[in-house]
Structure prediction request, 561 residues.
Amino acid sequence: MVTDELATIVRDAVASACADGTLPSDCMDAAIEIETPRNKQFGDFATNVALALARTVGMSSREVAERLVAHMPLEGTPVASAEIAGPGFINFRLRTDWLHDAMVAVEERADQYGHNTSMAGKRILLEFVSANPTGPISVVNGRAAALGDSLRRLFTACGAEVSTEFYVNDALNSTQIDLLGASLAARYMQEFGRAEAVPTDGYQGEYLIEMARDIAAEVGPVYCDLSPEERSQVFRKLAAERMIAQQREDLAAFGVEFDRWFFESSLYESGEVAAAIEQMKQAGWAYERDGALWLKSTELAGDGQDRVLVRSNERETYVAADAAYHKNKFDRGFTHLVNIWGADHHGYVARLKAGIAALGYDPDRCTIILTQMVLLMRGGELVRGSKRAGDIVPLADLVDEIGRDAARYYCLLTSYETTASFDLETAKRQSNDNPVYYAQYAHARCAAVLRRAEEAGVPLRRASEVDRSLLAHPKELELLRTLAAFPREVRQAAEAMAPHRLTAYVRVIGQALHQYYEECPALKEGVSPDLRDSRLALFETTRTVVANLLGLLGVSAPERM
Prediction:
């Protein structure tokens, strides 16, 4: 990766300057950062290391930069020149032959181009969505699903061993599941003319009416003569099973599959919750007060208050179950845990970290991502939740209306730290103001050019076979620079857990491609066969990079649009 090579060049220059006394030896530990200048006139890459070192060595940053550049032998590197600009930035320009050779790298690695080993040796467990089995998967859940699935792809591309998991909150002490069962039982009784009301704090969505109607048609009135308590238990199980099945179906239609669905109830059945509580007691991190057992979460993780592990009625809380669950994760050998939660769970972060620490694990090995809301607009008006779904916007409805690709892309378009807002009509439009259309059209345009060449009887030659030095037009070189950045973009998106960086990057590719297409025609009369072949090879290079990028987002790369 070129940024790694540039960092090595700078690091070696610092070491060389320190070795001959040009710079003091305490400069050896300087942090090296390679950046991309916003203004291309300043080169392809830059470093501000001289500005940082100037404060240490007591000389001007330009003087430090001059001494570093003097210790940079560039022969045999991707760098054509290292120039000093402004107060002491060192700007690098890449050799054009290196850019040309990037085409061969794309050709050789094909669908693996962009993959790297920056996360090799890590075993990562991604837990995401984990919605209660009390209703349909919502659009907000869909944002977490798109983010988690894209992170799985990114981490894997960077060499990590990745597993994905959906945590099902189905424990017997779940009040929400109790309410769901009671609500479904009431709807079932109503199907047979029994005047039974849904609990006032129960689930009112019409999806339960549909579910009750299906159950009534399947089994008839067999549950009508049970006691209310027995009936609620039966329907508690039926409701959870059917909602989980529906959630699986909705997520599969969204292109998201999990390696494992982990049931909270299994932690109680195996005794893991009780064992975790006992371990915290033995370690001195749990104490009794007012008939309950408390976790010292303020001391462990700076929580706002200590949290109850076991209530005075002897029922364990979710704090105990979550701690046991994360112990289970670590005990399976995962080196890093990543949880994706909704922003409304921000208050739960410290208590989970406290539980992890109380069980003897490093809480910093668990990263918790908090995703913000999704707002859907139509004609400037906010789209409200449906009565059928209980005032949420179901993900399945969004996929039905705008398609899976658009739904996933829009969920990844902006940082998870900001509210995602998009217009449904724009998402369906085939125009450049639709970001997913613009991204996919870059791939389709390349495919169309290559298809036209084949239809005209022009043989498509490999990048390694053409005269790449003919690609000297500014728009050709700009496209090559953009494509050569793909491995770096993949690594940075993975390290920052920020797939939205790729949606921004593919737009830059699209802009460079469309300018190249307009100014550097491949099949126009008068273009020499050698130049034609080189330009067609560049279209194939672009097609491969865009396809790989869209694949990391879980979005298709159409041949025609």
Observations:
- The chain has a mean pLDDT of 93.
